């Protein structure tokens, strides 16, 4: 069993290494946005068994405030089980913008399907 745990850890380390290599190819602002989007999806999925977030859009209802290493997205949305929900989050990353040092988020109401087209949300 210990060998399996070790191989899983090595696999995750390699995956993270490959993902970081890809992220480093992006411009710093895009890297910040991608890192924070992935982190908020992971946290939502870990913190709640009700949601299975598979997409985050930081700018759905209003433009996020982006600084060198942080993003405040009060008008974000995320998709879970084919439905969209309002989301607000604040994410602060490390200097390379590859990892989230802090993340706060709040999940809002479900977004009616009648509004999806207006806000460029999709199935």
Give the low-pLDDT segments.
1-15
Please write the CATH class name: Alpha Beta
SSE succession: HHEEEEE
Taking Cα atoms only, what radius of gyration do you get, to the nearest Å? 16 Å
Report the count of strand segments: 5
| Outline | globular
- Report the mean per-residue pLDDT as an integer: 85
Structural domain count: 1
Could you say what the CATH topology is called? Answer: Nuclear Transport Factor 2, Chain: A
Question: Helical percent range?
Answer: 25-40%
Strand content: 25-35%
The N- to C-terminal Cα distance equals 40 Å
CATH architecture: Roll
Tally of separate helices: 2
Q: Characterize the largest beta sheet: strand count, sense, and whether it forms a barrel.
A: 5 strands, antiparallel
Q: What structural category arises from helix and sheet content?
A: alpha+beta
List keywords for this structure.
alpha+beta; 2 helices; 33% strand; 5 strands; Nuclear Transport Factor 2, Chain: A; globular; disordered N terminus
How would you describe this structure to a colleague?
With 123 residues, the protein is an alpha+beta fold. It has one domain: Nuclear Transport Factor 2, Chain: A (Roll). Helix content is 34%, strand content 33%. The protein has two helices and five strands; from the N terminus they run ααβββββ. Strands 1, 2, 3, 4 and 5 form a five-stranded antiparallel sheet that branches. β3 and β4 form a beta hairpin. The N terminus is likely disordered.
List the helices and strands and how they pair.
Blueprint: H1 2-23, H2 28-47, E1 53-57, E2 65-66, E3 70-80, E4 83-93, E5 100-110
């Amino acid at each position: 069993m210990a060998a399996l745990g070790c191989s899983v850890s090595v696999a995750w380390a390699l995956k993270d290494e490959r993902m970081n290599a890809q992220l480093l190819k992006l411009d710093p602002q895009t890297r910040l946005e991608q890192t924070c989007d992935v982190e908020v999806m992971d946290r939502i999925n870990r913190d709640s068994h009700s949601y299975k977030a598979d997409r985050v859009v930081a700018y759905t209802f209003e433009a996020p405030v982006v600084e060198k290493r942080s993003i405040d997205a009060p008008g974000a949305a995320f998709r879970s089980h084919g439905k969209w929900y309002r989301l607000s989050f604040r994410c602060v990353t490390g200097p390379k913008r590859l990892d989230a040092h802090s993340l706060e988020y709040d999940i809002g109401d479900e977004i009616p399907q009648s509004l999806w087209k207006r806000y460029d949300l999709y199935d």
